[in-house]
Design brief:
Length: 89
């Protein structure tokens, strides 16, 4: 059996009511719904931080698009001579 740790959370009454409705729709306790939401949030946050680290490594290695190239591209949007999206060095 997986051991769990108790956690207390205070919710706005309206949010608590919505949580109860979701739990009822899923036929699960509110604690299960909260755990799933926290798991998803943590996984998303970890993925974001990993992506940021990867982007920093790319930038440190010099694999970037110069700001001037991006600015020129953006300024050309909706113009008859719109520039293609710039590529990194």
């Amino acid at each position: 059996m997986i051991r769990t740790a108790p956690v207390s959370v205070r919710l706005d009454p309206a949010l608590n009511e919505k949580l109860g409705a979701v739990a009822q729709d899923l036929d699960q306790p509110k604690s299960w719904v909260i755990e799933q939401a926290v798991r998803e949030f943590v996984a998303t946050r970890e993925a974001q931080l990993a992506a940021i680290d990867a982007w920093i490594e790319e930038a440190d290695a010099g694999h970037v698009v110069p700001h001037e190239d991006v600015a020129a591209w953006v300024h050309s949007w909706d113009q008859p001579d719109e520039l293609p999206m710039p590529k990194r060095d």
